[in-house]
Design brief:
heterodimer; A: 269 residues; mainly alpha; Cytochrome Bc1 Complex, Chain C; B: 223 residues; alpha+beta; Rieske Iron-sulfur Protein; 2 domains; 4-stranded antiparallel beta sheet; 3 helices; TAT_signal (chain B); 2Fe-2S (chain B); Rieske_Fe-S_prot (chain B)
Chain lengths: 269, 223
């Protein structure tokens, strides 16, 4: 009987195969650089499997008719990130004491390199964020995107809206000029008009019966630590639910029944 | 499932759980889970509760309000107000100061009974709408608020606008011929004294119960 020829042994399986199209490996400096980047990313991904999660988050199927209105949520998030970054750097020069706060803001605006610009970004950016979050809410409402199964995401969004307003209120005091001082007095007293709990709430905000020595630092802590942390956490959960549940088509895009179902209907006639 | 129901006994040994001790009713896995959760809860409460108390503590702390001299008896008259600056909160510069309008008790204007604390009437400039600073306009004989148009008459009763009660007052007393100003108190529309409330909190009708007085500031006992 003729013996079958012994198949050739495979090449050493421990050497990784060449990438397609690059039979001879990287040759130009650019290719070497790209190879180094790929190696670094691969090293991290092999130990974290992050790429799967990123792909899940970034490369989602979106419904037909998705348009520019769907970017308002991301726009709000970028406004928040801008506030967070400029806020962190303003904190390097700001002094939350009743006797020094005003002077430190004057110092930021008049003396610090780009200080007026960074302060201005933070000041005007806060209005931008409030406008964007309302537009985003309007988009969600008018497109009916709050309906089942996305009700919880609407509720989280309302919590984020309230916290954004809290940020605006607590941040308004920090420049500590006449306008911010009296606006805060009025704002705290509006809190106080709630029956039974109101008076205690306004005392909590002021840390006492009068606008006192620690009111400003209390507002500062609420403004830069307490609420931003909660906003970042809830924003993460908000985004998770968006990716998990998917987005809705605009109301003017009519749902099409699958072809198979249509054929079924025809044969039923 | 049915099998499990039938063999339900409170002893883990009877339930055929491997490694069960005699007389043991809670599995060690379950005891460990519960113990771990309790330990975590205690550890979280150990930092969360003190932090919370730390933040709300000032609500229950009595605020010290020392008597301060605002002038000699000769500086004030019964017909018009004289402004004086007092310190409500020490150590924070201008933010802790406030203007007070003072005049001598005037039997033609003031209806409330005389006592040791009102031979001089001290009117707070905190508007009782939302706390803006009111100004006494001599020509109109009225206190007028710049923010939302609150108007008060010469004794501080509401004439018009959004304020919910008359202007707050301060206790005053005499020491030799010097006028001293003490803690703030609030008044209802009959000018009866109440423990100080914040602006926007009415005191007529059920107001005094809906907006209770707070431990941080009370009126002087028996006044």
């Amino acid at each position: 009987m003729a013996k079958l020829k012994t198949p050739t042994l495979p090449s050493n399986p421990l050497t990784s195969p060449k990438r397609p199209g690059k039979a001879y490996g990287p040759s130009t400096p650019l290719e070497h650089g790209a190879e180094a980047g790929i190696t670094a990313v691969d090293w991290i991904d092999e130990r974290t499997s992050l790429s799967g999660g990123l792909r899940w988050m970034m490369f989602r199927k979106v419904p037909k008719g998705t348009n520019w209105f769907y970017t308002l949520g991301s726009a709000t998030m970028f406004a928040f990130l801008s506030q967070a970054v400029t806020g962190v750097f303003l904190a390097m020069y700001y002094d939350p004491s009743a006797t020094r706060a005003y002077e430190s803001i004057q110092h930021i605006n008049n003396d610090v390199f780009l200080g007026e610009f960074v302060h201005g970004m933070h000041k005007w950016g806060s209005s931008v964020m409030v406008i964007l979050i309302f537009l985003h809410m309007g988009r969600t409402f008018f497109f009916g995107a709050y309906k089942y199964p996305r009700e919880l995401n609407w509720v989280i969004g309302v919590a984020l809206l309230v916290m954004t307003m809290t940020m605006s209120f607590s941040g308004y005091l920090l420049p500590f000029d006449q306008r911010s001082y009296w606006a805060t007095i009025v704002g705290v007293n509006i809190n106080g008009t709630g029956p039974l709990v109101g008076p205690y709430l306004s005392e909590f905000l002021r840390a006492g019966p009068y606008f006192g020595a620690t009111t400003l630092s209390r507002f500062y802590a609420i403004h830069m630590l307490l609420v931003p942390g909660a906003i970042a956490a809830l924003m993460g959960f908000h985004l998770y639910l968006v990716a998990k549940l998917g987005t809705t088509a605009p109301p003017w895009v009519r749902a099409k029944s699958p072809d198979a179902l249509r054929e079924q209907k025809v044969s039923d006639l | 499932m049915t099998e499990h129901k039938e063999s339900k006994s409170k002893y883990t040994e009877d339930r055929q759980i491997p490694g069960a001790f005699e007389g043991e009713t809670v599995t060690r896995r379950r005891a460990m889970v519960l113990g771990g959760q309790v330990a975590g809860g205690v550890a979280a409460a150990a930092f969360a509760l003190p932090a919370l108390g730390f933040a709300v503590g000032p609500i229950f702390e009595k605020q010290d309000q020392p008597w301060q001299i605002v002038g000699n008896t000769g500086e004030f008259n019964p017909d018009s107000y004289v402004p004086r600056t007092i310190t409500l909160v020490a150590g924070i510069g201008d933010a802790g100061k406030s203007t007070v309008y003072l005049r001598k008790y005037n039997p033609d204007l003031d209806t409330e009974p005389r006592d040791e604390y009102n031979s001089y009437i001290a009117i707070s400039t905190l508007c009782m709408h939302l706390g803006c600073p009111v100004r006494f306009t001599a020509a109109a004989q009225r206190f007028i608020c710049p923010c939302h148009g609150g108007v008060y008459d010469i004794v501080g009763k509401v004439n018009g606008g959004p304020p919910v009660r008359p202007l707050d007052r301060f206790y005053t007393r005499l020491e030799a011929d010097r006028v001293l100003i003490g803690p703030r108190f609030s008044v209802n529309s009959e000018l009866q004294r109440f423990s100080p409330r914040d602006p926007g909190e009415p005191l007529d009708g059920v107001g005094q119960y809906l907006y209770p007085s707070r431990p941080s500031m009370r009126k002087i006992q028996g006044t």
